[in-house]
C-alpha cells in the first residue's frame, strides 16, 4: 500500500492515513497522497496489459491496504468508443465516448463507491449514509450489500424511479425527501452522529474521488498514454473532474505522461448551472441556485462542496463551463443513440450539445481529439421520455 497521508484540498493540513475521516477541520475536502516513486516502480505500463479489467488494475495508486477488503462487482475499465458516425456528422474524425454506463449499477458512481466502501470496511465502519441524486445511491446500495454493511439513503422525491427501486432491491434503507440533494445532505448531517452512520457524501470522505480518478488512468492507458485535447464532463458534485485531474498529476509525477493537459469542460443543465455561472463571473465559488430543476437528475446539484477545486481546474486547464437546455440534452440522447447505439443518460448526452456550442464559438477545433463522458445509462430515466 502506497498511501503516505491525507491532506486538505484548501488549507493543506496533513492527516495520518488509516483513520476514519470526513472533512478537514477547516470544513473542506481531504485528498489522498501516495509514495508515487514506489508506485511507479510497481505499476509499469507494460505490466498493466495482463491485469484484471477493473479499476483495481491501478491498485498501487488506490488506498485499500488488505486486498481481502477490495470489493468488486466488475467496476471500471469501461470501453472508450470511437464515435465514428457521430464524428462524421460533426466533421470530427477523432471523437470518442467513454461509456461509463457499462459499470455495475450502470453508472460511473460505481467507481467511487467501490473504493469508498472498501475503505469503510477496512476501517471498521458498519453503517453508511448518503444523500444522492440517484446513481450514487444505487452504487452505495450495491457495494454495501456486497460488503455486508448497512446503507441509509436519502434522495429527492423526484429521483428517477429506477434508482429508488434498485436501492430497495439491493437491501438499502431508502428515505425520499420533498426537497433537493442539498436538503438530503443536511438531514444526513443532522442525524449521523446519533445513528452511528459514516457519511459517504460526495467529497465529504476522501476515497470516492480515488475511485473516480481511475477514469483518468484508463483514458491515458486506452489512448496509449496520449491524453485527449478536450474532455467534456457532465458535472454535479464534480468528483470525476477532480479525480481525473488528480490522476493526470499523479501520472505525470510517475513519469507516465508529460505536462500537457486536456482542456476540461464542465457541462451543466440550464436549470442548475452553478459552476457555469461562477466560471463566467470569474468567481472562486459556485453560484447559488435556489430553484434547481432539470430532468438530468445527476446535474441537479445546486451547491457543491468542491466548487472551488473544480473552478480552479477549469481555469488551469484552459477549459470552460457550458450549459445546455433540457430540450437539447434530451434530443441528444436520441442523436447519440441513433448514431452510436449507446442509450446514454441525459447527463452524459448533455455533452453533445455542449460540444456543438464550443465548435460554433470556435473554442473546439473539429480536428481535435475530444472525449465525451457518458456517465450513466438512459434506461434508468424512462420518465424523461414521453410515450409514443
Ligand atoms: C449519470 C450522472 N452523470 C453525472 C453526475 C454528476 O457527477 P459528479 O457529482 O461526479 O459531478 C451524476 C451524479 O449523480 C450522475 O448520476
Ligand atoms: Zn483544511
List the helices and strands and how they pair.
Blueprint (H helix, E strand, L loop, with lengths): L2 E6 L5 E2 L14 E5 L1 H7 L2 H4 L31 E3 L1 H7 L4 E5 L9 H14 L4 E5 L3 H13 L2 E7 L4 H9 L3 E5 L3 H15 L2 E2 L8 H15 L7 E5 L4 H15 L9 E7 L4 H8 L25 H10 L3 E5 L1 H15 L5 H4 L1 H10 L9 E5 L14
The chain binds pyridoxal-5'-phosphate and zinc ion (ZN).
Structure commentary:
There is one protein chain. The strands form three sheets. The chain has a six-stranded mixed β-sheet with strand order 4-5-13-10-11-12, sandwiched between helices. Strands 8-7-6-9 form a four-stranded parallel β-sheet, with helices on both faces. It has helices at residues 36-42, 45-48, 84-90, 109-122, 135-147, 161-169, 181-195, 208-222, 239-253, 274-281, 307-316, 326-340, 346-349, 351-360, and strands spanning 3-8, 14-15, 30-34, 80-82, 95-99, 127-131, 150-156, 173-177, 198-199, 230-234, 263-269, 320-324, 370-374. Helix 4 packs parallel to helix 5, helix 4 packs across helix 8 (208-222) and helix 8 (208-222) crosses helix 9 (239-253). With 388 residues, it is α/β, with parallel strands linked by helices. Helix content is 38%, strand content 16%. A hairpin with a 5-residue loop joins strand 1 (3-8) and strand 2. The mean pLDDT is 97. The chain has 14 helices and 13 strands. The chain is globular and about 55 Å long. The structure holds pyridoxal-5'-phosphate and zinc ion.
